[in-house]
Specification:
The structure is a single chain. The protein is built from 9 helices and 27 strands. The protein has 488 residues and is of the alpha+beta class. The strands form 5 sheets. Strands 1-3-4-7-6-5 form a 6-stranded antiparallel β-barrel. Strands 8-9-10-13-12-11 form a 6-stranded antiparallel barrel. Strand 6 and strand 7 form a beta hairpin. The termini are far apart.
């Protein structure tokens, strides 16, 4: 073999072998740069993250505490949902304790955040979850460099689970707020906190979903879902993007074991910042109020109202002398946009209204009898004696009930008005009415959007629905009204 042939063979080997080696080197280098990016985030963020330890005193006799409305059926009681503050989560059974005073120790996380320049410059404000510091007699915060401070509560908001505490010092590093509305599913995020008391632990994941509502953790929900590993003790710590900006506050996990199972929830930074600003400025949160009961527009309801599913949310009740009534909103209207933005979910709409400044006039677009209307509504202020709009339970599918005309005696018994609706006196077990959640004592006000004021009118209305084999009912129970579609 001559020298030329040898060189040719060597050249071919280089061409065939080198690309995979180059690719391997490139892949390792890419991973190395990713790791350095996470390390950079940790260096920038950790000095502003604090370990929070709370001490509380309770007294009295032996107590076993249950605070869940689900009683023995609560999913929370089987480690289904746990917050990160140990078993301080509502609904978890607390062991009996002996009579007399006792001390309870809890822990969580928090972070120093920036406030407006010149505002109370002698104080440092720390954001955390309300459930971390609730009922605390003493709050102690510890920084990564070992410094410790006693803290006091600036303000807290149980409805959103956001709280602000303060320490008497200044000049500490702060975290910048990011815009959570610009987060996209699939983006990298970093969680930093103190899981199981292990100070300043960093975990990495992605945004799994946005706008999670109806989970049942807080009154006002709009959670970011992430698979970044978070555990008991992370609660109140920051969820940051790769620029080190806060995009969320770690709040809860979905778990059957009490530990990490790949599903965590964080309060969006935009919501948390709005709440924190109000807590610092006025010590409480002021929320907007419309005065309506709303429910999700299911496919069955959408069909009954002649609109496409996912087009809006349904008004099932309008409170008397409320901002909604004064604006001309009616029962049965479908809200399709608010402040120029589409409305698709009950939870998201409630959050939008609650964060609207009371007294402001906003545009709201509805569908009424197939016609689109844009209306102006002046937002009221939600006070303690007003019931925040909630989504009533909904279900629908078939029939099997007996009704009776509302006599004066029955009307008094069921707190109703004579001649307005019929009272359900019997529901057949496992019937479509029972499956839809209709029970004895319910008042049926309408069938297919037509008032029924006697048992005979109800029977005729149901008979007229025979060919369609479905009926839309408006039902009242305990001052709450809701629409239900029955199919048979």
């Amino acid at each position: 073999m001559n020298r030329f042939s040898m060189r040719l063979i060597v050249l071919l080997l280089i061409i065939l072998v080198a690309p995979p080696l180059w690719g391997l080197d490139g892949g390792v280098e890419s991973l190395r740069q990713t790791g350095k990016a996470f390390a950079s985030v940790a260096r920038a963020v950790s000095p502003s993250v604090v370990f929070i330890q709370v001490e509380s005193k309770a007294s009295g006799g032996a107590v076993t505490r249950f605070s869940s409305p689900f009683d023995d059926e609560s999913p929370f009681r089987d480690d289904f949902f746990k917050r990160f503050f140990g078993d301080q989560f509502p609904g978890m059974p607390k062991p009996e304790s002996p009579r007399g005073d006792r001390r309870a120790i809890g822990q969580g996380s928090g972070f120093v955040f920036a406030v407006e320049d010149g505002l109370l410059s002698d104080k440092t404000f720390i954001l955390t979850n309300n459930h971390v510091i609730e009922n605390a007699d003493r709050i102690r915060v510890k920084f990564q460099d070992g410094r410790q401070f006693d803290a006091k509560v600036t303000g807290r908001d149980p409805q959103s689970d956001v709280a602000v505490i303060e320490i008497k010092t200044s000049g500490l590093p702060t975290l910048a707020w990011g815009d959570s509305s610009r987060l996209e599913v699939g983006e990298w995020v970093v969680a930093i906190g103190n899981p199981f008391g292990l100070s300043h632990t960093l975990t990495v994941g992605v945004v799994s979903a946005k706008g999670r509502t109806g989970i049942g953790i807080n009154d006002y929900e709009d959670f970011i879902q992430t698979d970044a590993a978070i555990n008991p003790g992370n609660s109140g710590g920051p969820l940051v993007d790769l620029d080190g900006q806060v995009v969320g506050i770690n709040t809860a996990i979905f778990s059957r074991s009490g530990g990490y199972m790949g599903v965590g929830f964080a309060i969006p930074s935009n919501l948390a910042k709005t709440i924190a600003d109000q807590l610092i400025g006025q010590g409480e949160v002021t929320r907007g109020f419309l005065g309506i009961v709303i429910q999700q527009l299911t496919p069955d309801l959408a069909e009954s109202f002649g609109i496409d599913p996912g087009q809006g949310i349904l008004i099932s009740q309008v409170a008397e002398d409320s901002p909604a009534e004064r604006a001309g909103l009616r029962q049965g209207d479908v809200i399709v946009s608010y402040r120029g933005k589409p409305v698709k979910e009950v939870g998201g709409f409630r959050n939008q209204v609650s964060l609207t400044v009371p007294g402001s006039t906003e545009e709201l677009t509805i569908l009424r009898n197939g016609q689109r209307k844009t209306m102006s509504v002046t937002i009221g202020k939600l006070t303690r004696d007003r019931l925040a709009a909630r989504s009533p339970a909904q279900s629908a599918d078939e029939i099997g009930l007996t009704v009776q005309t509302l006599t004066p005696q029955l009307a008094e018994q069921f707190d109703a008005s004579p001649g307005e609706g019929v009272v359900v006196t019997k529901v057949r077990p496992a019937s479509i009415a029972a499956l839809a959640g209709i029970g004895p004592g319910s008042i049926i006000l309408q069938v297919n959007r037509t008032a029924v004021n006697s048992a005979a009118e109800f029977a005729r209305a149901v008979e007229q629905s025979h060919n369609k084999r479905q009926a839309l009912l408006l039902i009242r129970r305990d001052e709450m009204q809701r629409y239900v579609v029955l199919r048979w």
